Amino acid sequence: MSDIRSKFLEVYSVLKSELLNDPAFEFSHDSRQWVERMLDYNVPGGKLNRGLSVIDSYKLLKEGKELTNDEVFLACVLGWCIEWLQAYFLVLDDIMDNSVTRRDQPCWFRQPKVGMIAVNDGLILRNHIPRILKKHFREKPYYVDLLDLFNEVEFQTTSGQMIDLITTLVGEKDRSKYSLTLHRRIVQYKTAYYSFYLPVACALLMAGEILEDHIIVKDILVEMGTYFQVQDDYLDCFGDPEVIGKIGTDIEDFKCSWLVVKALERCNEEQKKLLYENYGKADQARVEKVKELYKVLDLQGVFVEYEKETYERLLNSIETHPSKAVQAALKSFLSKIYKRQK
């Protein structure tokens, strides 16, 4: 895997060089320097799980056949398109949330001399994706399908972000709206499609498959993405900040998290009153009261049971799929997130 990772990072350098010399725009020295710094700061700094999953999934779909250099390169390119998409979402998301740090460093918009120029940088990141696809996939029979896929997933993700933002509007904090249905909708659209379905869908297209023939695969991956976000919500409250790399703020931020939805289901009237009084307040003492209530309601135990049931259900769904190669790709994805600690 370390070989694949190093190959993947090499491909980033190739793509960056191509974009910094794109003939559609006449770069000055300053503009080229700006874009290079912006790319290096925002694109390759994460765990790269989404991008690497394209290569992993494609290898499994090829059922052990040795990949050609060209196949590895193209799988890496598609992986980087997803990482570019992720960078675009995060740059703008941090501005909307007025966040301070991202990946253990200041958010891009908080960098000296960047500020709201970051909005345009986000748009540049988004516009790089079709430039990359055009250069490397224009002659492929699945080129239009790739464009459709990225456009559809971007629409779903930005729509999910919209639901999340309007649910937590300042001054309109209405906890009665919070339900598992709302939580699932936010998660499905904001996270599951681009983080789970998109990498496998890219691999399926490269392997010559038609996505309409794999609706069951999409459903399984969206369910997996929902499970992943529930884990995230759990770790935001109960995870070790040293391990997960950040201090959770879902309680202060009034997020429609799985934990608060489950708490509302299990609360008596007195506990509900305590939750209403303290949830969504940027005050450490109030945050601790909410966490204490979560412990009293045994949400840790509820999560353990949810994780066990979800894992078994996903595994059963995967094993009913007729293709052993698709099963292997889905099981690989599931194994990466089951019982994760960060």
Structural class determined from secondary elements: mainly alpha
Strand order of the largest sheet: 1-2
Mean pLDDT: 93
**Could you list the spans in which at least 5 consecutive residues all have pLDDT below 50?**
none
Rg over CA atoms: 21 Å
Separation of the first and last Cα atoms: 20 Å
Helical content (DSSP H or I, runs of 4+): over 70%
Tell me about the biggest sheet?
2 strands, antiparallel
Number of strands: 2
Share in β-strands: under 5%
Number of helices: 14
Q: What's the overall geometry?
A: globular
**Helix and strand run:** HHHHEEHHHHHHHHHH
Protein name: Farnesyl diphosphate synthase
Pfam family, one: polyprenyl_synt
Function: Catalyzes the sequential condensation of isopentenyl pyrophosphate with the allylic pyrophosphates, dimethylallyl pyrophosphate, and then with the resultant geranylpyrophosphate to the ultimate product farnesyl pyrophosphate.
GO molecular function, one term: dimethylallyltranstransferase activity
Can you give keywords for this protein?
globular; 342 residues; 1% strand; mainly alpha; two-stranded antiparallel ribbon
